[in-house]
Amino acid sequence: MAAGPRGWGLAALALLLALLLALLLGGARRLRRRYAADGARASLRGRAAARADGVRLLLVTAHPDDEAMFFAPTVLGLARAGARAAVLCCSAGNYYNQGEIRKKELEQSCFLLGIPASDVTVVDHRDLPDNPAVEWDTQLLAAFVLKHIEANNINLVVTFDAGGVSGHANHISLYTALRYLHSERKLPEGCRVLVLESVNLFRKYISVLDVPISCLLPRDALFILTEEETEQARRAMRCHRSQLLWFRHIYMLFSRYMVINSLRLL
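User: That's the sequence. What structure does it adopt?
Assistant: Structure tokens below.
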């Protein structure tokens, strides 16, 4: 039976959408390759700019797996240019009584991201529980972070922004503590704080298609991984075997945070 006008119209629309998607994907991939090839030279702008080989980065996370799930582009992007990174994880991720397992998984993941176990610290404090309903005490958390910054001569701190990417109360608590240290001028001179941009659900799950958007929108730092580096980030995430439920496999395939980090200075 011959297709009617409506059938031909729907087919033409589907073809047009498929062509448009192919063009967007091709353009995003070309832009990704070009931007990633520029390395950290193009990643830090304005007040955030610095010699990457002089950066002593402290990544402040809430749980084991945050470093791979959300921040791998920043860690690998700066490491590409010679920066040294350390991780301060502010809980053992013991919500399901898996804290000891998750500590080991964190070390394995960080190793794949180029961070040795000697530069990975886990704060396992009873008043900083892994719990999405608990806001951590700002003063206590700030004291832990500041002590680590001063002891390790850190000049760049990276953590979550006020949205916490996923809205997790523990993530947001990190932002509150760093904002407090920054606003009260308690950080050492020259120590800057970058916070990871939280994006809407649509942008969060369009993977490399978010590259053009991230390049166009204002930010202080932008890190985009190559295909090889993205696979490195996924291998790091796979180290967190205790957390790899079915939806996290989908996350690894489609989340822009496995490919792109856009950040702003406090």
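The first strand starts at residue 56 and ends at 61.
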